[in-house]
Design a protein that fits this description.
8-stranded mixed sheet, alpha/beta, about 325 residues, binds phosphoric acid mono(formamide)ester, transferase, 4-stranded mixed sheet, binds adenosine-5'-diphosphate, about 25% strand, Carbamate kinase, globular
């Protein structure tokens, strides 16, 4: 039975409508895809993002902030989103498994991710959270929230950005391992895990949001997963993405794709962390990672879709003809 860690991006939870009802519906659709891994006989470990949700929650908190009902800090909001999104996934997965005649427990684990207080990310916010703003709204948003930093997010508009330190350790990984060994489907490290700094025996929450792709890679390494699968809204990883000569990778070795990382050829706010997280997992474990589209879960299991990254120096394979330019 292969141990497969599946990391889910924003579109797996939130489409255009941020209501609980709409997000639950999106999660139910996602569960229909995820159940394919269990049907395939894999031990599934689910992890997910929280960028839109935690940003929206912070906005709700600040709009009601008062001495009697103070706004909760970012680490606590991260924990709240782990709970709410975990609850949606837990029920959606349970329902989908039962529909397929599989009686398996699903369990959300509140997960804390240890980071360094000296991580340079604390002085360079880069993680987009919450809603998108048009360029014309930026000045007003800055006036309303003078403590915010805003950044353009991969051509999709402007968003608030917060520090995103790198995960050093997943505090609950041994418990997660036991849950996995028991055959339960765990939902872990939601939103990258609650960022905490170790101070002696204490874990102290800090104001940050960890990239879920990096924490997915970390937990996959710690539990010695056979595969890391990062599901997003792109068919796979492209070289020259968005350009006429773009080419989708079918299979690539770490030595080659590392050269493209070093040349900063992937977008920092979107594909770069996924590729870096995948490469880190492959290097540390020798096992493959796949980056692909959520709607292609069945094909990814069959090996016919997505970009597979392997440790060896293989001949790079492309999904379509390499050169599209005329
Ligand atoms: N080189 C690339 N290859 C494929 N997709 C890319 C690339 N660069 C940027 N993208 C964009 O990144 C998106 C995935 O990133 P993002 O939306 O941040 O992920 P998430 O699903 O984790 O929220 C894709 O849908 C695609 O539009
Ligand atoms: N925490 C995190 O990486 O969230 P998103 O994937 O939603 O950006």
């Amino acid at each position: 039975m292969a141990k497969v860690v599946v990391a889910l991006g924003g579109n797996a939870i939130l489409s255009e409508n941020p209501s609980a009802k709409a997000q639950k519906q999106a999660v139910s659709q996602t569960a229909k895809e995820l159940v394919n891994f269990v049907k395939n006989g894999d031990q599934l470990i689910i992890t997910h993002g929280n960028g839109p949700q935690v940003g929206n929650l912070l906005l709700q908190q600040s709009s009601a902030d008062s001495p009697e009902n103070p706004a909760m800090p970012l680490d606590t909001c991260g924990a709240m989103t782990q709970g709410s999104i975990g609850y949606w996934f837990q029920n959606a997965m349970r329902e989908e498994l039962l529909k397929n005649g599989i009686d398996k427990d699903v369990m959300t684990i509140i997960t804390q991710t240890v980071v360094s207080g000296d991580d340079p990310a604390f002085h360079d916010p880069s993680k987009p959270i919450g809603p998108f703003y048009q360029e014309s709204q930026v000045e007003t948003v800055k006036q309303e929230h003078p403590d915010w930093q805003l950044m353009e997010d991969a051509g999709r508009g402007y968003r608030r950005v917060v520090p995103s330190p790198k995960p050093l350790q997943i505090n609950e990984y041994r418990a997660i391992q036991q849950v996995v060994d028991a055959g339960i489907v765990p939902i872990v490290s939601g939103g990258g895990g609650i960022p905490v700094i170790k101070k002696g025996d204490q874990l102290v929450g800090t104001e940050a949001v960890i990239d879920k792709d990096f924490s997915a890679s970390k937990i996959a390494q710690l539990i010695n997963a056979d595969k890391l699968i990062i599901l997003t809204s792109a068919g796979g990883v492209y070289y020259n993405f968005g350009k006429q000569e773009q080419a989708e990778l079918k299979k690539v070795g770490v030595p080659e794709i590392q050269e493209h990382i070093d040349a900063v050829e992937f977008s920092k706010g979107s594909m770069m962390p996924k590729v870096q997280a995948a490469v880190d997992f492959v290097r540390q474990t020798g096992n493959p990672a796949v980056i692909g589209d959520l709607k292609d879960a069945k094909e990814i299991i069959a090996g016919t879709q997505g970009t597979t990254i392997v440790n060896e120096n293989v001949q790079t394979e492309y999904r379509k003809s390499k050169v599209l330019s005329s």
